[in-house]
Amino acid sequence: MKRPYRVVVAKPGLDGHDRGAKTITRALRDHGFEVIYTGLHQTPEQIAETVLQEDADAVGLSLLSGAHLTLFPRVMEELRSRDLGDVLVFGGGVIPDADARALSEQGVAQIFQPGASLKGINAWLEQTLDERED
Ligand code: B12
Question: What is the pTM of this model?
Answer without folding.
Answer: 0.98
